[in-house]
Amino acid sequence: MTSLIRRRTLTSTAALTALALATGVAVLPKAHAQAAWPNKPVRIVVPFAPGGTTDILARALVPDLSAAFGQQFVVDNRAGAGGNVGADIVAKAPADGYTLLMGTVGTHGINRALYARLPFDPIKDFVPITLVAAVPNVMVMNADKAKALGIANVQDFIRVAKASPGKLNMASSGNGTSIHLAGELFKSMTGTFMVHLPYRGSGPALMDMVAGNADVMFDNLPSSMAQIKAGKLTALAVTSATRSGALPEVPTIEQAGGPTLKGYEASSWFGLLAPAGTPPDIVNRIQQEVAKSLASPAMKERLLAQGAIPGGITPAEFVRHIDAEHTKWAQVVKASGAKVD
Description:
The chain is an alpha/beta fold and 341 residues long. Helix content is 46%, strand content 18%. The strands form two sheets. It has a six-stranded mixed beta sheet with strand order 2-1-3-10-4-11, sandwiched between helices.
């Protein structure tokens, strides 16, 4: 019996070889044929804890991607070190399309300049897929404090800050975060000074803002929205290049600040990336499906209501976006003096 099986195997192999020689096309036994991607679940690593904007955006995409590719896309939260823990996991993962990263302005725009050492290279170790969304920060003040100081707009704020340097303090979600650096960019362009109060997250910072212990904050818009609508925080301006559809009556900092703040833009952003070496066809297919999802009326409405601006740009455009962000935030980090060992 063993001899018979061996003869059949050799005959089958010989037949495949003969067919390959005759047609000029390599023919492999079915067991060795390359499986089409994806043939198992795809993991999206979110480098922050559940419940934040990064997590919300990743989970918003999962149903559409799972349906489009016929495989489950799952979110894997790997928080730590300003997003570096999760980013490092993806940087060192196989480049086979089964591990993706929901990167941010922090992991791929700020941290390279902020951290003395990174376990990965945000440029060389990743292939950008697409920008998922941009989220403006919003310059907010405690409503009672703003009224008491006669601050109704950005020009008023600059006037008060310049009249008494250090009188106003500036809360943030932590040293080197986009919320902190948005404020540092404002300070450097206006020549003002506010004492920086770093908190362990935007939640505690907002609590002190509402309590009147902190004066101003350049928070992510989705985080502050409820307090703005409740009248506990006054929104002076958004930090994006254009107004937010979620707060259309609130001007941009550039619009509100005049020539002094011309060119100011400090939005947070979130996008999908894959390990370097991931096949271009996989990268392009993911980008196309993400763009399709983000263009749907339901997704647009959902994101815009939260203050997020849908993306969907091509991989090449995302590469250029990340390069520009590195340059801009390196200058801001240097000017602020922020560093993390």
